[in-house]
Design goal:
It is a multi-pass membrane protein. Keywords: Cell inner membrane, Cell membrane, Membrane, Transmembrane, Transmembrane helix, Transport. By secondary structure, this protein is mostly helical. It contains 16 helices and 2 strands. The chain has one domain. 55% of the residues are buried.
Length: 417
């Protein structure tokens, strides 16, 4: 097994118990990545508001952290549903515990860097959410990664994920076109915030959230003991301070970093980290160029019309996404791991289907694993928890579909990286 296979992320359930040595840094790629990132930074400084430059830095750090830690959502759900390994899901709970601790005062007092209004991701609970999250859960298991996973896998050179990204964008655009049907014609309850809809306040909602995270972590431990689940194996890593730049980071450390960066995103642009709204924007702009009357879609009415008419670099989610891709690229090059991977007919087909399902599902569910699950739960929204449950259900079904495309399904004897 090569170091490149190990490097993809913890989303592909590699079954190697002994961590290989690290490769040498790819200095030419590092220099090239820094030049491109620097050029984008200069462009943003000259054409956009100050927050865009800060968001690019945050995006770079997000991508760097995601790649270095192999912090996965897709693989975490797959391992739990297939063999009962809940280590990565517990890292999610730790990350969310840090996030709600940071989000609570920010949301309660409206703390921001640029005087923008601050609001979390709180979305309705209805048919759209249920269908969208379930579809997304299937799609991320076929597409080989979630929304954030797709971006940092592209940055790491995993070739098939370029296909996933293209069809993710297409699916998100179709979902934007169909969204008024799902939100206006299908049943839905009003958005429910554990902080503002229940009378708990942010202090009570924080305490309830911490209790729920603890309960979920305990349940994963019970499942692990009952199924005698395999443990996650080691991955390549440096020692000491060098580990900051090369090798794998501990999942819990990565969880803290991601939570802090999400909180900084909230304080910078007034809303948490998101990914897939930019995909709908990119796809809609292309659709408009080829002749579709995108401006007439219900999705692009009101304030959203401004984004459609503006440069993509004015869109803060686009800036974050580009930062994630470049950050992952720099991290992979620092580890000597950037290398385009092989594409086969089966994994390409899975990427097409998975990308379409994730894009469409994310629009229906008011977000992906980042906007709905991470951002929603961190914002004390009930829809974030429901998203997670339905995505797990979609993951379970996808376990029976993955072998049809030559994709692996974890076995009880495997040791995961």
């Amino acid at each position: 097994m090569t170091v490149q296979t190990q490097s993809i992320n913890r989303q592909e359930d590699t079954i190697k118990s002994t961590a290989p040595e690290l490769n040498k840094p790819q200095m030419k790629l590092i220099v090239g990545g820094l030049i491109v990132s620097g050029a984008l930074m200069v462009h943003l400084m000259m054409t956009q508001e100050a927050m865009h430059s800060l968001l690019l830095i945050i995006g770079l750090l997000l991508g760097y952290t995601l790649f270095h830690s192999r912090f996965g959502f897709t693989s975490a759900f797959r391992r739990l549903m297939s063999v009962g390994n809940g280590q990565a899901v517990r890292s999610h709970m730790f990350m969310l515990a840090v996030a709600v601790t940071l989000f609570a005062p920010i949301l309660a007092f409206g703390l921001s860097f640029f005087g923008t209004d601050v609001a979390g991701y709180v979305a309705p609970v209805g048919v759209s959410l249920v269908v969208g999250a379930f579809i997304f859960g299937i799609g991320m298991q076929l597409g080989g990664g979630c929304a954030s996973g797709t971006l940092f896998a592209v940055g790491g050179g995993r070739s098939v994920m370029f296909i996933t990204l293209i069809f993710f964008i297409i699916g998100s655009t179709i979902g934007a076109y169909h969204l008024p049907f799902w939100t206006e014609d299908m049943p839905a309850a009003e958005p429910i915030s554990l902080a503002t809809s229940t009378g708990f306040g942010y202090g009570g909602a924080w305490a309830l959230s911490i209790a729920l995270f603890g309960l979920i972590a305990w349940i994963t431990l019970v499942v692990e003991r009952k199924k005698n689940a395999p443990k996650m194996g080691p991955v390549p890593s440096e020692k000491g301070w060098k580990r900051i730049f090369r090798g794998s980071w501990p999942l819990l450390i990565a969880g803290v970093v991601l939570a802090v960066l999400n909180a900084l995103t909230l304080m910078t642009r007034g809303e948490p980290w998101g990914v897939t709204s930019a995909f709908a924007l990119w796809g809609s702009k292309v659709a408009e160029v080829v002749g579709f009357d995108v401006a007439s879609w219900g999705y692009w009415q009101g304030d959203a019309a401004t984004a459609l008419q503006s440069s993509i670099f004015a869109d803060t989610t686009t800036v974050l996404n580009l930062g994630v891709i470049f950050g992952a690229f720099l991290a992979s090059a620092a580890g000597g791991l950037f290398k385009f991977s092989k594409i086969t007919g089966k994994n390409a087909a899975a990427s097409v289907i998975g990308g379409l399902m994730m894009g469409y599902g994310a629009r229906l569910a008011f977000g992906c694993n980042i906007g709905a699950y991470f951002g929603g739960i961190a914002s004390f929204s009930l829809h974030g928890y429901i998203w997670g449950i339905l995505a797990l259900a979609g993951t379970f079904l996808a376990l029976f579909l993955r072998p049809l495309f030559g994709l692996s399904v974890p076995k009880p004897r495997d040791t995961f990286c």
